[in-house]
Design a protein that fits this description.
The protein is an alpha+beta fold. It has 6 helices and 7 strands, in the order ββαβββββααααα. Helix 2 packs across helix 4 and helix 4 runs parallel beside helix 6. One of its GO terms (molecular function) is peptidase activity. Keywords: Hydrolase, Protease.
Length: about 200
């Protein structure tokens, strides 16, 4: 694993590999982060906030972060109607998060061991329904605008892409992010979908 000191963007949402998430940037520490990443063509780490708020105010405790995060790169940006900077990020490699510290500007930095991207894995016939769900979601105008480039024949991309798009609880998305086996990823995702269907 490659280890590095990584700037972090803690979120109440989970970013998965191959997934895309729009963000509104208004805190100065994150405006600085976006500027540096765009200037240096570099990325940053997104970690899920297990407990705490995205915006830390005086007197609040520190955030409790997930131990596994996702590398993010900025693929689009624009000034929003409300005057804020809007960016779209795409998930890349996963990383294991070690010790964290707070920089002078309030940005969270972490010791990150970046994992290699897993090799493509075939999608077994038993998961063809998941491929169909991804295909139907891809027809939605909002999903089309995201311009996702997901290979439905790669189990990793299929699983991560579906998990990012579906209205799953963030704790479940984080659980999927931590899995290291493609078949287990699709099996757990199928189980979660079955539970959703049963509740509907």
């Amino acid at each position: 694993m490659q280890s590095t000191d990584l700037p972090l963007f803690p979120l109440s949402a989970v970013l998965l590999p191959y997934g895309r998430v729009p963000l509104q940037i208004f805190e100065q520490r994150y405006l600085d982060l976006v500027r540096d990443c765009m200037k240096n063509d570099s990325g940053f780490g997104v970690v899920w906030i297990r407990r705490g708020e995205e915006v830390i105010r005086a007197g609040q405790g520190r955030q409790q972060l997930g131990e596994v995060g996702t590398m993010a790169r900025i693929i689009d940006w624009d000034q929003l109607a409300n005057g804020l900077l809007g960016i779209t990020i795409e998930g890349g490699e996963r990383f294991d998060l070690g010790a964290t510290r707070i920089a002078a500007n309030g940005l969270v930095l972490g010791e990150a061991s970046i994992r290699e991207s897993p090799a493509p894995a075939p999608v077994a016939d038993m998961w063809s329904s998941l491929r169909d769900i991804l295909e139907s979601l891809g027809e939605h105008p909002q999903v089309r605008r995201m311009g996702l480039a997901i290979d439905p024949d790669d189990a990793w991309q299929l699983g991560y892409g579906l998990a990012q798009l579906l209205p799953l609880d963030e704790s479940l998305k984080y659980e999927l992010l931590t899995l290291d086996n493609a078949d287990q990823l699709l099996d757990q995702l199928d189980l979660m979908l079955s539970e959703i269907s049963g509740e509907a």
